[in-house]
Amino acid sequence: MAETSPPPAPRRVVLVSGGNRGIGHAIASRFATSGDRVAVTVRRAPVEGFFSVPCDVTDTAAVDKAVERVEAELGTVDVLVANAGVTDDKLLLQMDEASFTSVLDTNLTGAFRLVKRALPKMLRARRGRVVFISSIAGLSGSPGQANYAASKAGLIGFARSLARELGSRNITVNVVAPGFIETDMTAVLGPARRDEMLAQVPLRRFGLAEEVAGTVHWLASEDAAYVTGAVIPVDGGLGMGH
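The structure corresponding to this sequence follows.
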C-alpha cells in the first residue's frame, strides 16, 4: 500500500505590529515564507508583500479599526505578534513624565490594546498564539532607558498573567527578549560603542533579526504547543537566560 503524505497545515492568519522594518519585518517575512497569510501594522507607507493596515497602537480606535480590517480581509487572527515599540532615551533626572509615559503607552499599553481587540475571536475559535517582543533591557535594566526597560519588563508580567487566564482555551502567550540585534538603531553606533557592547556578549557578535524571527515562529508552531508563559532570550548569552 502506497504511503500518503500528510495534508498540508492550514494557512494561519498572522498579525505583526510594527512590521515595516527591522525585527518586525523579519518576523512577518518568516511567517510568509512558511505559507501563512500575514498582515502588518504600519504608521506610514504599506509594506510590499504583506497586507498592510495603518495603525497607531496608542490610539484604541485605530487599533480596533486595524484588527477589524485584518479579520474582514484575511479572517480570525491565529497568531498575534506584538512588536511595535519606541525608545526615548534619557537619564532619569533629564526624563520628563511625557517621555516616560509615551514609551509605556506604545510598548506596553499598545500591546494590551492589540491583544484585547484580537482576543474575542481567538477565544471563540479556542486556539491562538500570542508573542510579545520584549528586550534584554526588561530583564537586566539599561542606563538611560528606565522608560523602555519598564515597558519591556511590564510585557513579561502581562504575558504571564494572560498565559494563566487563557491556557484552558488553547491559547499560548510567550515573550521573546532580544539582546543586541543588527538593526537600523545599532548600525549608527560608533566602533568604540560597538566594541563595548560586543565585549558583553559571549558569542561576540550582534544577533540577526532573522534569528529573533525564527524563535517567534517556533513559539507559534505546534512544536511549542506546550510552551506558555515563557521568556526566551535571543541575546547571544548576554543575560545567561536570567
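The first strand starts at residue 13 and ends at 16.
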